[in-house]
Design goal:
heterodimer; A: 111 residues; mainly beta; seven-stranded mixed sheet; four-stranded antiparallel sheet; globular; B: mainly beta; six-stranded mixed sheet; 0% helix
Chain lengths: 111, 115
């Protein structure tokens, strides 16, 4: 049972490049989340999904897009990366009243 | 707006002394509350959770938290700190029914444990 898996674990982008972060969960969870973690700011919610085919904006959605075409996968896209998007990104999933389970994070640097 | 506030950004204790990490949430119907711990360069691990059962919740590694509706608080405590407790701690709230979806994090508290 792999839980929540994020791909890739590290990435360096040049300003203006695009990329997609993949989150995969094998627990049949309905809810999935993308957060970014920056020093002194905790984890801030970027986008989330309450089920396959649905997405919603979180606290800091600008500059990001997401898709949930399959229940087990939640993709986070950066169309034109900016240095302000340098951060550690965490994906999480949960079902019903359970707690959220987190991936190990993706460290993204935009130069 | 839905929010959660961790009152201390940094807490320093000596090994063997009690730990208190404070968390307040904005009042709302039926919140669920969680504490997570993050060790350096690691992911997040659940310490404990409150989901409207007993107000005193026991978690892993000797931690516990008490839900106080009148004070809108969910403070995390441990009777005796261990060096391995040094980490960042996050208070997390989920408002309303499970269908609401959002999980909101506090800003985090860094716990330092001195020998």
């Amino acid at each position: 049972n792999a839980g929540v898996t994020q791909t890739p674990k590290f990435r360096v982008l040049k300003t203006g490049q695009s990329m997609t972060l993949l989150c995969a969960q094998d627990m049949n969870h309905e809810y999935m989340y993308w957060y970014r973690q920056d020093p002194g700011m905790g984890l801030r919610l970027i986008h989330y999904s309450v089920g396959e085919g649905t997405t919603a904006k979180g606290e800091v959605p600008d500059g990001y897009n997401v898709s949930r075409l399959k229940k087990q996968n939640f993709l986070l896209g950066l169309e034109s990366a900016a240095p302000s998007q340098t951060s550690v990104y965490f994906c999480a999933s949960r079902r019903g009243e359970t707690e959220a389970f987190f991936g190990q994070g993706t460290r993204l640097t935009v130069v | 707006a839905q929010s959660v506030t961790q009152l201390d950004s940094h807490v320093s204790v000596s090994e063997g002394t009690p730990v208190l990490l404070r968390c307040n949430y904005s009042s709302s119907y039926s919140p669920s509350l969680f504490w997570y711990v993050q060790h350096p360069n690691k992911g997040l691990q659940l310490l404990l959770k409150y989901t409207s059962a007993a107000t005193l919740v026991k978690g892993i590694n000797g931690f516990e938290a008490e839900f106080k509706k009148s004070e809108t608080s969910f403070h995390l405590t441990k009777p005796s700190a261990h060096m391995s407790d040094a980490a960042e701690y996050f208070c997390v709230v989920r408002y309303g029914s499970s269908n609401t979806g959002k999980l909101i994090f506090g800003q985090g508290t860094t716990l330092q444990v001195k020998p």
